[in-house]
Amino acid sequence: MKVVYHPLYATDYPTASVESPERVEVIRRELEGRFPFLEPEPAREEDVLLVHTRRLLEEVKATADLYQVALLAAGGAIKAAELAAGGEMAFGLIRPPGHHASPDHHWGFCFFNNMAIAVERLIRRGKAERVLVIDIDLHYGDGTANFFSGREDVVVVNVQEEDRGRFLEGVEEALEGSFPYDLVALSAGFDRYRLDWGGTLEGEDFRAIGEMVSRRVREVCPGRVFALLEGGYYLPDLGQNVLRFLEGLSSYGG
Ligand SMILES: [Zn+2]
Prior knowledge:
- The chain is an alpha/beta fold.
- Helices cover 43% and strands 13% of the residues.
- A 7-stranded parallel β-sheet has the order 2-1-3-9-8-6-7, with helices on both faces.
- Helix 8 (203-220) links the parallel strand 8 and strand 9.
- It starts with a strand and ends in a 5-residue tail after the last helix.
- Bound molecules: zinc ion.
């Protein structure tokens, strides 16, 4: 398991105060020394334009420090996806998040859709043929779902169960469904945690989710899984919850 991270993810760019630089700092402190860290390159404009309109790109570009970090977040997603395509599990410890960014519209602390850019780029380059995207964030990842709507080569599952047991079953059902995927991508939000906004999942549930994915990926497409940070706002436990998730994800190789 590799962690893709860049110090500029802790930039204090203009956004909602709850989506603070501290989010990635608390996670970095928890993961450092436990997993190898890699630094990404910024995404290029042409990568962003795989998913977004020129208009949206120019809108984000108008805020220089935000634009720099948003390109680095998309670049971090691309790097994590490339590692996964090569059979090495990876986690993008990135910021800003992306799953509320649609082709020509963004909201919810998101600017570019890191997940959609990374997955679309892999497919265009022939590095994956059928990708299963599972979004476990509290909030429905409308941007990712919008972009891949109607596609046969990418299935996006937003697990939206309010009940803890049903939520875990929902993840399992996504993994066991009839879609024949060759790579799994996880939009990993941690805001469904018991003490966060969602109030649904225990910390250990993130480990259980990671384990479920790991077990299934080992059978279907060994090593070909990556996860990207989306939401998660309860800072005292956020780092621990990400660590549990990654330990679970590493449990069957990687
Ligand atoms: Zn969220």
